[in-house]
Amino acid sequence: MKKVLLTGAAGFIGSKVAEKLLEKGYKVIGVDNLNDYYDPKLKEYRLRKLSENKNFVFYRVDIENRGALRVIFQEKKPEGVINLAARAGVRYSIENPFVYETTNSLGTLNLLELMREFGIKKFVLASTSSLYAGQPMPFKEDLPVNTPISPYAASKKAAEVMSYTYHYLYGFDVTVVRYFTVYGPAGRPDMCIFRFIKWIDEGEPITVYGDGTQSRDFTYVDDIAEGTIKAYETETGYEIINLGGNHPHQLNEVIELIEKFLGKKAEIVYKPFHKADLKATWADIEKARKILGWEPNVPLEEGLKRTVEWHIENREFVRTIPLP
C-alpha cells in the first residue's frame, strides 16, 4: 500500500509521519485544514519541508467536508488512510465542545464512509491516553474506558467505536493507536514542553497547574511516527495499541532538564490543578511490542536536548508564534 491518504499532514505528529512515509518510498496525499487553533505559521513551516518531495501532494481540506474529500478519493485513489486530523487539547474542548465532536467524530465517519464507497480497507486512527482517566496504571488497552472526563476524550472514544463498527460491518483492518504526551522539535505551542522552553528562554514566568509532581509518559515524536507507520503496515483486524514512552516523568524533572539545556533558570507560577487533567499517565506497551515490533528509542533527556536545540536554531521564528 504505497499510496496513503494522511489527514492532519501539517500537524506536529502528522508532518513527522509524512516525512517518514516519504523516506520509506510512499506517495503521501496530505490533507489538513490549517485551522488557527494555534498559529498556522508553524503548520506552514512543516508543510514547506514536505512539499520539497515530489511524492507529497497537499490539499487544504477539512475532514468535515465529505464532498471535498470524495474528490480527493476519486482523483488520487489512496490504498489506505491514516487519520491524524483532530481537534486536540483537553482544556479547550471544555470551552468549545462542538468543534471536537464535528472534527473528531463526524470527520472520522466521513473518512470511513468514503473508504467503504471506494473499497479501501486499511485504516489507522490516532487516539489518546486521555481516555484512561481514573484507571489503574500502567494503562492497558483492555481497561474499560467508558467514562471520558473531557469532550476531547469523548470525541476520540466515539471515533474508536465507529471505526470498530466499520471493521465489523465491512471487514476494515483498523488499528487504533493511543498516543501518550508527544513532544519534539516544531511541536504544538499549546503543549507544556513548547511553552516551557519558550517562556524560560524569553525570561517569562512559566505556569504549572498543580505542584509539578504530576507525571506524563512523554514520547518523542519520531518514535510515535514510526509506531504509527508500523500500525499502518501491520494487519491487525481491529486492535487498540498504546504508543508511549513506558516511563512516566514528573513535570518538575522536565523543567529541570530544559533549564539545563537552555542554561537558564525558570520562574514558576503554580496554579490549581485542572479538573479535566490526569494526575499521571503511564503506557503499558507490551501489545505494541508483540503486534508491531515497536518500542520507543529516544529517552526523555535526549529528546528534550534535541527539542531545545531546534528552539535555539529557530529562536527568531519561535518568537513570532503566540501561545494559544
Automatic annotation (TrEMBL):
InterPro entries for the chain: NAD(P)-bd_dom (IPR016040), NAD(P)-bd_dom_sf (IPR036291)
KW NAD (keyword) present: yes
Keyword field: NAD
Domain named NAD(P)-binding: residues: 5-307
Name of the protein described by the UniProt record: Nucleoside-diphosphate-sugar epimerase
